[in-house]
Design brief:
By secondary structure, the protein is an alpha+beta fold. The protein is built from four helices and four strands; from the N terminus they run H-H-E-H-E-E-H-E.
Length: about 130
């Protein structure tokens, strides 16, 4: 299999991050790390390109103090919500929200969560 060779430049901080990630994911080298990252980005892109009716899971990680705002957003998008699960940890809260509806509406809901400062992570996984 033939590979195209590319060259990239990284600042020292990003280079250190690449080394740490390479060790964490046990890739054979930086090329494998870049390929892994590109595959993950491609999967994420696919989830944002879906159209029509979709079913998915919104995964949220947030501070306790964001609970009211999370509940408000969930209520605003209630027609999309099939199921919601909430759990507390010492570090914060997890929300698992099963959603079903038009992709554009689900992505709008995701975007609202991503704009909320107290939400550390908001991710959509589409079935």
């Amino acid at each position: 299999m033939s590979h195209e060779i590319i060259s990239i430049s990284l600042d020292p901080e990003t280079s250190a991050l690449a080394i740490a990630l390479q060790q964490h994911f046990k890739t054979r080298g930086r090329s494998d790390l870049i390929r892994l990252a590109l595959r993950n980005l491609q999967e994420e892109r696919k989830e944002h390109m879906v159209a029509g009716k979709i079913t998915g899971v919104l995964l949220l990680v947030h501070h306790h103090r964001a609970a009211a705002e999370v509940i408000q957003i969930i209520h605003e998008f209630q027609p999309l919500v099939e199921t919601q699960l909430h759990t507390n940890t010492k570090q914060g809260c997890f929300e698992i929200v099963v959603v079903k509806g038009e992709a554009k509406d689900v992505h709008e809901m995701l975007h609202r969560f991503q704009q909320t400062k107290q939400i550390q992570r908001a991710k959509l996984v589409v079935a």
